[in-house]
Amino acid sequence: MSAATTVRASLEVDLEPSDAFSVLVEELAAGLARRGIRFEPGEQGRVTEGEAEVGRVVAWTPGELVALEWRPADWRPDEATRMELRFEPGDGGTRVTLEHSGWERLIEDPGELAGWFAAEVVAPLLEAAAPRRLGDWVTDRGARRPSGAQARSTYGDPVYHYPNFRVILAELALTADDVLLEVGCGGGALLRDALASGCRAAAVDHSPDMVRLARETNREAVAAGRLEVREASADRLPFADETFTCAAMTAVLGFLPDPVAALAEIRRVLHPGGRLVVLGSDPEVKGTMAAPEPFASRLRFYDDDELARLGRDAGYASVRAVRRSLEPFAREAGVPEAHLELFAGEGPRFLLARKG
Ligand SMILES: C[S@@+](CC[C@H](N)C(=O)[O-])C[C@H]1O[C@@H](n2cnc3c(N)ncnc32)[C@H](O)[C@@H]1O
């Protein structure tokens, strides 16, 4: 084939070009990082995969254009393609266009080129637009591994979670002698309230965005050495045995693929006699505003017996599944009047456990 082959994708979006540019650059860097590719944005920016430099920025005009010289094949280091990301104003928004040209030199046979395009470009695009992958993305984005500006805003001030936080703090009754662990800390709002007791704390979350936000929310405590926030998974805590006097986990349990492993890991890092409070994942909320689709079909739910069994199977000496009313806490936590009724009734389950 003699004509230049260009792969092209575009999106019309209701954002100013400068805003579209910021979102695209941030999300592209984060999305590539999840795939093991590092994108350093900016005029001198580059893209690396392991040791190999894959792309080098050759034009960088914020709000208008990013162009990269791209080397897709490290076994053919002289072959460079050109990648452009253009931002063009139109109809009150922006047309974002990705163009990647020069493919005909890398995959010369037209049938092979068509095969690569179908299997490696179009198929992932269609998968992204099919229910399983889209539902996973929406679930991760909003709750299971939150990321992006909207999630940062939600978890920086999670008004609807404050009643749960109040119950947890009431159960833990923290003092300045406590060393608290929070697992799945989101934006760090519970930590902020917990630290008011004078305790010290550490927290983990597997979302890099949430780790950054939790550190920002509690920057003074971090600077004072009273709080450490680490990117880690609930079932592999980066702490020594018997580090903490108590632990909390809220709005996380239902997302865990192996909750017993995570609870056992928390037990490992608790002092003997250490106490644990975990917000349950109640079957009754499946499909309601508290656990709508597509989250609902990706969450695990536990009734009283199942919740208590998780604690026992994880090796805790004393285990109770209890109900705690959120109503008294909802009003004082600033839940809007119109939504107070969501917090009426006997309230959600909590697992209260103690290490032997
Ligand atoms: C629904 S958010 C709740 C955040 C916070 N606890 C709150 O109540 O506002 C769930 C959080 O748990 C984190 N998470 C989920 N599974 C996790 C895991 N296996 N290890 C560490 N963090 C996890 C997510 O990244 C997210 O920040």
N-end to C-end Cα span: 72 Å
Most strands sheet? 7 strands, antiparallel
The number of helical runs is 11
The amount of helix comes to 25-40%
Distinct small-molecule ligands in the complex: S-adenosylmethionine
What is the rounded Rg? 24 Å
Q: How much strand content do the residues show?
A: 25-35%
* Shape type: elongated
The chain-level mean pLDDT equals 96
Number of strands: 14
Question: How would you describe this protein?
Answer:
With 356 residues, this protein is α/β, with parallel strands linked by helices. It is built from 11 helices and 14 strands. It has helices at residues 17-34, 110-128, 131-144, 149-156, 162-172, 189-195, 208-217, 219-223, 259-269, 304-313, 327-332, and strands spanning 6-13, 37-40, 46-49, 52-61, 65-70, 81-90, 93-101, 179-183, 200-205, 227-231, 244-249, 270-279, 318-323, 349-354. The strands form 2 sheets. The chain has a 7-stranded antiparallel sheet, covered by helices on one side. Strands 10-9-8-11-12-14-13 form a 7-stranded mixed sheet, with helices on both faces. The protein is elongated. The mean pLDDT is 96.
